[in-house]
Design brief:
By secondary structure, the chain is an all-alpha fold. The protein is built from three helices and no strands. It has a domain of 38 residues. It starts with 16 loop residues before the first helix and ends with a helix.
């Protein structure tokens, strides 16, 4: 796997938005469905689910950049 910064045209990357937009749109639609289902579970579960999503996104984003974060430390910061 090559990272974005390892591409030969870095940092002047280009993309074909016409191929990305349908994928992004679909992902956002599924995210909306998920959030609707979570909100129907009640406030406490909704809040916990959003917190878990934020924690996972933070950890995965950092991993992309080569940094490993401790889940409990991130959880503490989010709380």
């Amino acid at each position: 796997m090559t990272y974005v910064y390892q591409q030969k045209n870095w940092p002047k990357l280009t993309c074909d938005s016409s191929s990305l937009l349908p994928l992004i749109s679909s992902a956002r639609q599924e995210q909306g469905k998920l959030l609707t289902k979570v909100s129907n579970l009640g406030f406490k579960l909704d809040q916990e689910a959003r917190m878990e999503i934020l924690i996972e996104e933070t950890i995965k984003t950092s991993a992309i950049e080569g940094e490993r974060l401790n889940k409990e430390t991130v959880r503490s910061s989010v709380a």
